[in-house]
Amino acid sequence: MIDALLLPLLLQAAPVAAAAALLPSDPLPGDWRAIPDDELLVMTLAGGGTVTIRLAPAYAPRHVANMLALARARWWDATSIYRVQDNWVVQWGGAPTDAEEKPLPAGVAKSPVAEYDLPGAFHGVSIGADPYAGRTGITADSWAVGGSADGRRAWLAHCYGTVGVARDAAPDTGSGAELFMPLGGSARRLDRNYTIVGRVIDGAGQLSGLPRTAAPGGVYLIAAERTPIVSVRLASDLPAVGRPHWQYRSADNPRFAAMVALRQSPKGMVALGGIDVCDVPLGVRRAQ
Amino acid sequence: MIDALLLPLLLQAAPVAAAAALLPSDPLPGDWRAIPDDELLVMTLAGGGTVTIRLAPAYAPRHVANMLALARARWWDATSIYRVQDNWVVQWGGAPTDAEEKPLPAGVAKSPVAEYDLPGAFHGVSIGADPYAGRTGITADSWAVGGSADGRRAWLAHCYGTVGVARDAAPDTGSGAELFMPLGGSARRLDRNYTIVGRVIDGAGQLSGLPRTAAPGGVYLIAAERTPIVSVRLASDLPAVGRPHWQYRSADNPRFAAMVALRQSPKGMVALGGIDVCDVPLGVRRAQ
Question: What is the pLDDT of residue B2?
């Protein structure tokens, strides 16, 4: 049976006819900008699946610097995805074979200050207020953000696919070695409480489709339930041949704003009034 | 490593000490109310997992009446979960062995009028406005709802675990035979566009943990990828011995309001300001 939920997605996936006119919401070629190879983390899982993370050095420089050092030290290799809590988070980076914590490599700060509340306003497309922020929007460089109504503070927002830094109770106790990704209905209550270091731009389903466990906190009790992480590498450290390249769709242009407006008032549906900042599609594509 | 994301959940799961004083946010015994057995749908999947759905006859009477007839006719038996689109929906009720549509049993209306925009205000706990509704809240009988600011319209909200009626383009083309459950970051844009017939109160992870597919719209291309549905039964049609009984936590009491307030300002965290209506935990428990 065909259903309306399915149709828009199939249409989206259909190839654009050669002669089709551009819509005001379609990106122009120049709207696509390169993600630097040293801001792309490629995580390879047992079984061969890969998860690609775009890092956010402009927003969490200390934690991202840690992550570069961790990747180069191959610290994550042979760790695992050890927690999948339904409607909440998937978490990885533990050392499954050790009861003890795995020592951090040289050059990795154990307690960088938290980086989840940034001075200044964001620039890009404004989406509106919501229960968690006086303003929300998408930055020019394509990050979902919240901000104070007075424009003096801003922060990256926890959406599906966001990569955050797990930590102990104190805000400065996450190094970036242990990471989580929200996979459920809402994780916005983590905004301004956890440092966001990036977002999954490809392969998020490899994480969200993992089996749930009834164990407390979603932490697999049996080692065999965990998904081994084979390797985590910066794209810039991979051989030039076969290295992945990605682009993001920039938001500081009227095409992006038109797409958001269309999303708020979809054709053939009751107009929504507004939209959740996490429900704005942040385009990415592979570069040639 | 212990992390703060994990701790509250572990504490939640810990048994309450016998001598512990009740907090203002703790439910009293009378706050728990029975869900009638004929408002509980038990779906058994291949492999033995079960998914329990609380039906919403007060909000979508025509579609729920259809579903009772479908369950009694065993219409869903040997259908399947045939769609799992990452960060969007899981969908079931198709007839995997037929290219044709499976005929509906006698007594099932093919085109009931849509039931997603209801006259009147809701009563319960008010949560506040959000991008999709002038008001939101939890009804006394524990449903997440949106409503117009003037209190003249209300509707059930699409949250993680909500069960909705898939349909063709026209609003009255869903019978309740094909159903979907949102599993991703936000499905609120479906509010006032799709009829909600219930919500999963147990076993949602059996659906959200299914493998994703890269196929268009998340529809498995290979029959073997689908998860067979063994049976779908009303609890009231199951043998009395072993029949499941469930209760919901009512929201028309100060304990529930205190719990929401606590959720908005969690201990040890930056206060959130507000909360998304889909992020309010709707308590359920098995009755003795």
Answer: 37
Which string of b and e fits B134-153 if b means at least 16 CB within 10 Å?
Answer: ebbbbbbbbbbbbbbeeeeb
The tens digit of pLDDT for each residue in B1-37 reads 334 444 333 334 444 445 578 999 999 999 999 999 9
DSSP per residue over chain A, as a string? ---TTTHHHHHHHSPPPTTPPPPTTSPPGGGEEEEPGGGEEEEEETTS-EEEEEE-TTT-HHHHHHHHHHHHTTTTTT-EEEEE-TTSEEEEEE-TT-SSPPPPPTT--SSPPP-S-EES---EEE---BTTBSEEEEETTS-EEEE-TTSSEEEE---TTEEEE---SSTT---SSSEEEE-SS--GGGTTTS-EEEEEEE-HHHHHTSPP--SGGGB-SSGGGSEEEEEEEEGGGS-STT---EEEE-SSSHHHHHHHHHHHS-TTS---SS--GGGS---EEE--
CA distance, residue B138 to nearest chain A CA (Å): 15
Residue of A158, A159, A133 lying closest to A146 (CA atoms): A133
Q: Shortest Cα distance from A135 to chain B (angstroms)?
A: 11
The ipTM is 0.90
3-class DSSP state for residue B127?
A: coil
Q: Which residues pair with A5 in a beta bridge?
A: none
**Nearest residue on chain A to B180, alpha-carbon basis:** A5
Q: Measured between CB atoms, does A131 come within 8 Å of chain B?
A: yes
What pLDDT, in 10s, does the model give residues B31-64? 999 999 999 999 999 999 999 999 999 999 999 9
Q: What count of other Cβ atoms lies within 10 Å of the Cβ of residue A6?
A: 21
Closest-CA residue to A143 (of A130, A131, A128, A161): A161
Whole-number Å distance between alpha carbons of B280 and B181: 18
A93 Rama class: left (phi>0) / alpha (psi -120 to 50) / beta: left
Q: Which helix (H) or strand (E) holds B259?
A: helix B254-264
Alpha-carbon span B172 to B264, nearest angstrom? 38
HEC states along A172-236? CCCCCCCEEEECCCCCHHHCCCCCEEEEEEECHHHHHCCCCCCCHHHECCCHHHCEEEEEEEEHH
Burial tier of A124 (Cβ tally within 10 Å: 0-12, 13-18, 19+): buried
| A159 contact residues in B (CB cutoff 8 A) | 185
When pLDDT is averaged across residues B193-205 and rounded to a whole number, the result is: 97
Check if the beta carbon of residue A132 is closer than 8 Å to that of residue A188. yes
Q: Which two tokens stand for residue B263?
A: 């959720």
The two structure tokens encoding residue A169: 């109770």
Scanning every residue of chain A, which has its alpha carbon at the shortest distance from the alpha carbon of B173? A3
In whole angstroms, give the CA distance from residue B139 to residue B253: 11
Nearest to A74 by CA among A286, A232, A210, A282: A232
Distance between B231 CA and the closest CA of chain A, angstroms: 20
Question: How far apart (Å, rounded) are the C-alpha atoms in residues A199 and B87?
Answer: 14
Give per-residue pLDDT as tens, A10-19: 334 444 445 5
* Residue A157 to residue A196: CA distance in whole angstroms: 8
